[in-house]
Amino acid sequence: MIDPHPITDLADQAVILPLVLATGLVLLAAGWWRGAAAWFIAVPGTLGAVLVAKLSTMACQGLLPPIGLHSPSGHTASAAVVYGGILALVFGGRLAALASSAAVAALIGYTRLALDVHTLADVVAGALLGTTGALVLALLAGPRPPLRRGWVGVAAAVVLVVGVFHGRHVYAEMHISRLSQQIWPLSLCAAS
């Protein structure tokens, strides 16, 4: 069996967050203003949606139906929207967004299951959030301009960021869990 750690580490926030910034800056430098704006709206928006979903599911765990959803997989969602989103921008269009983000989500989701850190429901929830984010990105970005040097820059940013940050960890889940208990009291769960 292939060790899932190096693959799943591609979606750790220690890699994802610098990659979001680097990709957006490369899109700006390449002159694709609409693509950069779409990137800086859709990707942080998706990551924010994941955070809210994690906070609410963690805080309200006892009130959720027994479907195995404990915390949507942030690795799966992040990989789908970032790597799938990059591929969607390169190849252009909604179909590219759906296909690439779903493929990336399946790969990272598999690693999360193999490492036994998420349930199938967690991975599916993360995949849905990330794939939706990639689709929104493709819709907001519009038609892809011919950015030959821009695409080389995006590829270079991915290689550079992954090379520098791969293997580092943010351990966001621990911080999110603690935060969920502080800002989302159980009384709010019962009221909703």
Q: Concise description?
A:
This protein is mainly α and 192 residues long. Helices cover 76% and strands 0% of the residues. The protein starts with a helix and ends with a helix.
Element order, helices and strands?
HHHHHHHHH
Q: Work out the strand percent.
A: under 5%
Structural class: mainly alpha
Number of spatially distinct domains: 1
What would you say this structure looks like, in words?
With 192 residues, this protein is mainly alpha-helical. The chain contains 9 helices and no strands. The mean pLDDT is 86.
Show the helix and strand layout.
Layout: H1 5-8, H2 13-29, H3 33-59, H4 74-91, H5 94-114, H6 120-141, H7 148-165, H8 172-183, H9 186-191
Helix pairs in contact: 2-3, 2-4, 2-7, 3-4, 3-6, 3-8, 4-5, 4-6, 5-6
Features:
9 helices, mainly alpha, globular, 76% helix
